[in-house]
Amino acid sequence: MAELPSASVTIDDEAGAFAGGTGYAIVLACTEKNADGVPRVFASTKSLIAQHGYSPGVDYCSLHFEATKKPVIFVGLPTAVAGVVGRQDASGVVGSSVITIASGAHGYLEEVDASIDVVTGGTIGVSGITFNISLDGGKTQKLIRLGTAASYTVPYVGIVISFAAGTLVAGDSYTFTTTAPMWDSAGMSAAKTALAAQLKLGRSFVVVGDIVNSTFAGYVTTAMNGYETANDRYSYARVQVRDRLPLAEMSRATVRMAGDPSITFAEVGSTGDTITRATGSFVTDGFVAGMVITVSGAVTGSGHNNVTGKITGVTATVLTLDTADLDAEGPITGITIVGSFGLVFTTTTATRSGGSWLDDGFAVGDSVTFTGTGSNNITVTITVLTATIMTFAAGGSAETIGTRSVTCVKGETMAAWVAAMDSAFASVDAQKRIDLGLGRLTKLSPITGWEFRRPVAWAASIREYQHDVQIPCWRKADGPLDGWGNEDANGNVAEFDDRTDGGGLAGRFTCSRTYANGPAGPFIALSLTRATEGSLLSRTHNMAVANVGCTVVQAETEFAIGQVLILKSDGTATEASLTVLESRVNTALEKNLLQDKSEGPRASSAVWRASRTDVLNVPAATLTGVLDLHLNGTLEQIATSVRVS
Q1: Are 405 and 437 contained in the same domain?
Q2: pLDDT tens digits, one per residue of 237-249
Q3: Residues 6+ apart with CB under 8 A from 418
Q4: 3-state percent breakdown (helix, strand, coil) of the chain, nearest 5
Q5: How far apart are CA 636 and CA 541, in angstroms?
Q6: pLDDT in tens, 609-618
Q7: 286 with 356: CB under 8 angstroms?
Q8: What is the pTM of this model?
Q9: The last residue of a domain, from among 365, 383, 411
């Protein structure tokens, strides 16, 4: 059967490296709108937002435009896993208003570490309340004047903050986190197919969205390897592994009884005592069965009804408790009722009546510490986890308590996190077309104005597009990464630094570092693919040069398709015929790799030679060739001996 005429290029690591790439970055990211998987070229943030709305991927592009002055090919991916609210903590709110977080029309669009700090208190719906909001862990704050509104929509990021009827007091503090949308294997595969159908080339793919293990890395390598073998395109992908921060923490959301209705306490028997309100609704206020409530303001029996108890039933006007200790009292006003989800301990489990361990960021294998309990201030390791049930080895004891008074925090040291990532991605080996980034750096968003913690992969990509393909993004002479930081709100180095923390390069991750003798600020330590250890192609800039060589040979040998060669009697081509073809390919290689570009030649030598032994007097004859490519040397280690006389 006849086949479509074609030319192909493959890399032979043992024969010396190959090369390739162009000026486009190809950005793949979930989008707010028009997540249609269609590759489009954009040169401005304004046009990109008009087409796709806001997303972390769009924010990357805004940084890329600003720093490199180069366009991108953007592919909007469908959201497979929606962003969620993670940890919420309302324990710092003493006012009666309940603060809640909801997503906008397109879901949560950004990963934030947020806080709301009330500056001027007052009554919701009455002008005067002001609060500071931060989405970047306190590094940046913006003063918001709530006025008579009962909600505030944070621009761009898909977060709506609502304030229930009641009051806020100066000093009230509420914190929460959210996650960003995530793609899946189907979206990645479809994007590769769509890119292959177009005639645009890119130096690299920037895949936006943290991956948690080698399965997700496999989605990327499958796409990139198929881009080469099935589509004759030569590129590599920058991807980021999961972050360490913010550490998972159990939400401590609360609900409060609104207004000051008349309350009646009833003692009804051995169990099922009730609290009845004359007006308003417990259901509307957010009380549900399983919550633990705390009551204050009761008088009879020296305040005997000021109890903490678990709700077993809820109607609009009646709360039924699992207690038989209430005294008959009321109607009485001046009562405060605050509730939070219940937390029930056994010797091996902690079960919550609401919220989600998973959304809060916990996972099997995490070491977690409980504090603020009566008898379960313990540190345990999670063995099984669902949304509501955390299972661990023996260590707990029977207790029911409200989450409002309890903290549960994951403990993961920097070293433990690096080791976990090394283990999670150890199987991603001999994959020269993927570069895994580890760690974060802070960078001011040109769109939102927040100083978000962004992947090191972003910083490495932007730095490499400021230079020609053969220039490493970790060249010390280029100085610290422009505008990127590694310090927290208090000025302490808080991000992974391979110089002081170690383990990132040993695990073959692209990561950042500082230099002991300055200048101050973060640098890329090395940029590494997952090619076989010791291969020249394990250095990402070498892979970029190799891709240029592949692309040139691919294009130039395709021009030989249909050419008629003079053959010798044995069916092989004459020397003169092959020399003409070689001249064309090698002229293009010289122009693209060996001539002195703005930053010097891209390679030391590049010569393509056609086989002299291929028999070409048969249908579907294949002419083979070898590109002998010698990369430039890149200094990594410098040793100096000092002689003192």
Answers
A1: no
A2: 999 999 998 888 9
A3: 438, 496, 501, 502, 503, 504, 507
A4: 20, 30, 50
A5: 13
A6: 999 999 999 9
A7: no
A8: 0.87
A9: 411
Residue 312 identity: T
DSSP E strands: which ranges in 210-328? 236-240, 254-256, 263-266, 274-277, 291-296, 308-314, 318-321
- Long-range pairs for 287-290 at CB < 8 Å and ≥24 separation? 287/255, 287/257, 287/311, 287/314, 287/319, 287/339, 288/314, 288/353, 288/354, 289/313, 289/314, 289/353, 290/341, 290/342, 290/353, 290/354
Residue 429 one-letter amino acid: D
d(CA 461, CA 522): 15
Q: Is the pLDDT of residue 15 over 70?
A: no
Output 153-156 pairs: Cβ under 8 A, ≥24 positions apart: 153/104, 155/448, 156/54, 156/109, 156/110, 156/447, 156/448
3-state secondary structure of 639: coil
DSSP state of 633: P
Q: How far apart are CA 242 and CA 248, in angstroms?
A: 13
633 to 317, 475, 541, 603, 637: CA distances (angstroms): 78, 13, 11, 9, 12
468-481 burial, b at 16+ Cβ within 10 Å, e below that, comes to bbbbbbbeeebebb
Which residues, other chains included, contact 311 with Cβ-Cβ below 8 Å and sequence gap of 6+?
287, 288, 289, 290, 291, 292, 293, 319, 320, 321, 322, 339
C-alpha angle with apex 49: 46 to 51, nearest 5 degrees? 110
Is residue 400 located within the same domain as residue 304? yes
Q: Which band of pLDDT confidence, cut at 50, 70 and 90, is reported for residue 17?
A: very low
Per residue in 386-424, pLDDT tens? 999 999 998 999 999 999 889 999 988 999 999 999 999
Q: What is the DSSP letter of 14?
A: G
Q: State both tokens at 617.
A: 């007097």
- Looking at the structure of the chain, the number of domains it has is 3
CB 25 within 8 A of CB 70: yes
Residues 128 and 152 in one domain: yes
User: Among residues 80, 89, 90, 87, which one has the least CA distance to residue 30?
Assistant: 80
| Per-residue pLDDT at 245 | 84
The 3-state DSSP class for residue 337 equals strand
Give me the count of residues in the chain. Answer: 645
Alpha-carbon Rg for the chain, nearest whole angstrom, is 31
The model's confidence at residue 23, banded by pLDDT at 50, 70 and 90, is confident
Cβ(600)–Cβ(470) under 8 Å? Answer: yes
Does the structure show a pLDDT above 50 at 76?
yes
Residue 435: domain span: 1-81+181-247+412-645
**Same-domain check for residues 296 and 402:** yes
Q: Are 108 and 159 in contact (CB under 8 A)?
A: yes
Domain boundary among 370, 385, 411: 411
Shared-domain flag, residues 172 and 186: no
Q: Which residues contact 1 (CB under 8 A, 6 or more apart)?
A: none
Best CA proximity match to 255, nearest among 228, 221, 281, 224: 281
Q: Are residue 394 and residue 328 in the same domain, yes or no?
A: yes
Residues 44, 50, 54: CA angle, nearest 5 degrees = 85
DSSP string, 58-90: HHHHHHHHHHH---EEEEEEPPSB-B-EEEEEE
On whether both 302 and 239 belong to a single domain, the answer is: no
Same domain, 234 and 287: no
